[in-house]
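Illustration 12: S9 family peptidase.
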Amino acid sequence: MILRFYRILSFAVIFLLAQVSLAQKSVSLEDVWQNYTFRQRSIQNLNWTQDGQHYTELKEGKIIKYSVVDPQKSEVLFDEEQYRVAGKKINVQAFSLSSDERKILISTESEQIYRRSSKENNFIFDRQNKSIIPLSKAGKQMHASFSPDGKKVAFVRENNLFLVDLVSGKEKAITTSGKFNHLIHGACDWVYEEEFSFAKAFQWSPDSKKIAYYTFDETKVPEYNMQMWGELYPKDYRFKYPKAGEANSIVTLSVYSLVNQKNIPIQVGKDKDQYIPRMKWTASSDWVSFIRLNRLQNHMEILHASAKDGSSKLIYEERSATSLEIESVGNDITYLADQKRFIFSSEKSGFKHLYLAEIATGKVEAISQGSWDVDDFYGYDEKSQTLYFNAASKSAIQREVYKIQLDGANLQMISQQAGTNTANFSPDFSFYMLYFSSAKEPLQISLKSSQGTLIRVLEENNKLKQQLKDYAISTREFFQIPLANGEKLNAYTIKPKNFDPNKKYPVLMHVYGGPGSQQVLDAYPVSNDFYWYQTLLDKGYLIYCVDNRGTGARGVDFKKITYQNLGKIEVQDQIYSAQYLAKLPYVDASRIGIWGWSYGGFMSSNCLMQGADVFKTAISVAPVTNWRFYDSIYTERYQRTPQENAKGYDENSPVNHVNKLKGNLLLVHGTGDDNVHFQNAVALQEALIKANKQFQSFYYPNKNHSIAGGNTRYHLYQMMTNFLLKNL
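Figure caption equivalent — predicted structure in token form:
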């Protein structure tokens, strides 16, 4: 009788679950790319105040200051609805506070230039007298920044560096020789911005009396020309872009003294064909620290320069047989208050770790150690002699937040949940914001003490969680693919809710695969591609993604194996992975496709050609098709120059494998792509035509590398979906 009751109950539960499942909606392309139904919320312009006891955010046009310990204590510092300039509303897009919090620098009317650069109209809001005035009336500004004492603001306009005294209101040009496509002061050229990941190229000294800044002489750098369509006659946009093996900008550093109003050149070395990927002040206003990197990027030096006479001296150097990526080596130089030591990161042990160096003796000691990578260094608390950092210690597909003593003792994980954890610490390290997500959990932002105690949750994405209940969403399942050499590749799959292991399914693989990158990560997907995949699941596809050798968070040997041969081992791994998947009982081996964007487009087109008997279909979006066409810093970091390594450039270019094409190829590019030039698509198309190979192609007029804006993404993903339905 009891058994019969449980049978009835089980059938009832199954029936109810079936009804719930039937009630769930399928994801549509309109949901993804028109309504943006699944947008994940974060907190806009979340910043700590100087005292570390408060934080600010931009919310619905209001700049709000909150107390860490008491959420009821909040103060609206600025409300855009209450202020007008010349009768015009100020729409706040970004802001920063002066050190004493009496003034707010407000950015509005931003115009994007490249990936990390933009120009804005900036305003100064005085909280005491409630006045708001333009920072400058002579044109939009770039990189506007308060001096540490809050009395001045520096910015860049039309390739020159300027200074505004907020007391007198006077504006002064620090440089006057700046000229488009010739000379830049205080801002990066295109290739530094893209590949060394910064655009603002000046720094205030701690005492607010000096500004150290970069100058880029682009005169000898070749120009790339993009035609912008729409007018009766297309407009030319010419900008300096050094392709692999071509001339780079000559880069110098200077210090401007506000006291004597003089520019002092810094001795950066006699080799003009070098890089200066980092520059900052030491703990003192007397010394500027900078990193010097040779063109092959396998010899890195840290130098200190005198702000008085510009003379420089070597503090530390490191060499490598491959390359030294600045994001992994020397990116986190932090000076101790004693001005005798500094903390930096290095991969010299085979994994990225933190080190302590003595300036006088050159002695270097490891702080963190182990067969795992430090991912990000958050800072050093002098009071407790504690370092805080992020690492992939538990697994390459996860991230944790740690603390450790300066002497390497007491390594402790302070994040608690398995997934991806990152942090933003207060200036005094008393508190931090913990950003957590996993494959199944959307972003959650928590306010915690330095000991890890939860103070309160700031964002849980409850709206998104509620919306997800209405849809039949399949999450990612992680697994590994064993290689013949014993190594294992991290991978994930997404299967339909009604997956039947007795059926045969076509497969779409997604690939990026570039050096140090990761697609297989236990984090909630930021990209809307995840929701596009849900629409494909409904149409009977399985989704797979594999991180090939050469990707990140697994040490130097795994990452650098592709050195001087981009596209060789990575493509072999993707083909091998597809063959592995083809043997699964529920995979239709005759219907395996692959798609990718940028480096992923390079990979997907290569896979279709070099793996012609494995892949039926590929979509290649904005691909590099020949590394000779790409920029100097990125390409030479992994390939050396074409003059030194012609074989490495040519052997794995899809342009040189077109004769092998058997399957279906869709090639997509934006004509206004300043990063991966439309030239790449043209070259591949020309080679395919010459080889008499049929394919499909599509271009988006004036669109950059992201191919976005207006109806563009919806159109693109409609087209890709239709192509897959027809050809896979």
